[in-house]
């Protein structure tokens, strides 16, 4: 596919057919995705390929606590998991929430789930001393994750970048024998989409790009 076509038609895929994703195709996806940039070209990303049903089910279960909070906050008119807007809900209200099945179904039903981890010993977190949550270290892993999704689209497959399970990182590390020095960054189910969209809806450029300053004139005009 032409690059711009791939970029404009790569949705979050959460429903999969029963088709397999063969190792040779997944290998080709990862072989091309590995050329994503990383800080200092340190290439600290590791990918764990999960096909075992029990392991995928366990990982899906680990995402449920965060999904309950997400569901409860959304129903309460809050911005789920927002670091600047703490929840007003108590633990009982969160525990009582019933997240939609589709929040965990992709991990149970996709033929393969990829767990992306990054070696914290090689990232450069230049925002670590700022009085906010660090985001810069993500530059060492998320371009790789997106390359995987672009390559999957090119091969006729799809997936979605998820982070719900990351809230239970310690238990994920126990499940998958991940060393302490690594951070879990994303969990991505991959498979053949039940349906493939051809056009995504996004805000036009002049609604998010400005000239010279944050409050500058809209770009391009």
Number of helices: 8
Instruction: Work out the number of β strands.
Output: 4
CATH architectural group of the domain at 3-51 and 107-207: 3-Layer(aba) Sandwich
Under the CATH scheme, which class of the domain at 3-51 and 107-207?
Answer: Alpha Beta
Major sheet attributes? 4 strands, antiparallel
Derived structural class: alpha+beta
Low-confidence stretches: none
Strand order of the largest sheet: 1-2-4-3
> Given the C-alpha coordinates, what overall shape results?
globular
Helical percentage: 25-40%
**Whole-angstrom Rg:** 19 Å
What distance separates the N and C termini? 31 Å
Relative strand content: 5-15%
Q: CATH H level of the domain at 3-51 and 107-207: which superfamily?
A: NADH Oxidase
What is the average per-residue confidence, as pLDDT, rounded to a whole number? 95
Provide the succession of SSEs: HHEHHHHEHEHE
CATH fold category name of the domain at 3-51 and 107-207 = NADH Oxidase
What does this 3D model show about the protein?
This protein is an alpha+beta fold and 221 residues long. The protein has a domain at 3-51 and 107-207: NADH Oxidase (3-Layer(aba) Sandwich). Helices cover 32% and strands 12% of the residues. It is built from eight helices and four strands; from the N terminus they run ααβααααβαβαβ. It has helices at 3-8, 23-33, 53-62, 64-75, 91-96, 105-109, 142-154, 169-176, and strands at 45-50, 112-119, 158-159, 182-191. The protein is globular, with a radius of gyration of 19 Å. The mean pLDDT is 95.
């Amino acid at each position: 596919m032409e690059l711009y076509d791939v970029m404009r038609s790569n949705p979050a895929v959460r429903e999969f057919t029963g088709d397999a994703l063969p190792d040779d195709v997944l290998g080709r996806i990862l072989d091309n995705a590995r050329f994503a940039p990383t800080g200092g070209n340190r290439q600290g990303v590791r990918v764990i390929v999960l096909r075992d049903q029990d392991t995928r089910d366990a990982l899906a279960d680990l995402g449920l606590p965060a999904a309950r909070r997400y569901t409860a906050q959304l129903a309460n008119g809050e911005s789920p998991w927002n670091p600047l807007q703490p929840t007003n809900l108590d633990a009982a209200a969160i525990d009582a929430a019933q997240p939609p099945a589709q929040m965990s179904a992709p991990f149970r039903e996709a033929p393969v789930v990829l767990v992306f981890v990054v070696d914290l010993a090689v990232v450069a977190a230049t925002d670590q001393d700022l009085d906010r949550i660090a985001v810069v270290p993500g530059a060492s892993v998320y371009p790789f994750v997106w390359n995987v999704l672009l390559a999957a689209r090119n091969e006729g497959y799809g997936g979605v970048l998820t982070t719900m399970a990351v809230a239970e990182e310690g238990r994920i590390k126990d499940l998958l024998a991940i060393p302490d020095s690594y951070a879990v960054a994303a969990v991505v189910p991959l498979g053949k989409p039940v349906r493939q969209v051809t056009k995504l809806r996004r805000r036009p450029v002049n609604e998010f790009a400005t000239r010279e300053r944050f409050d500058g004139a809209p770009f391009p005009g």
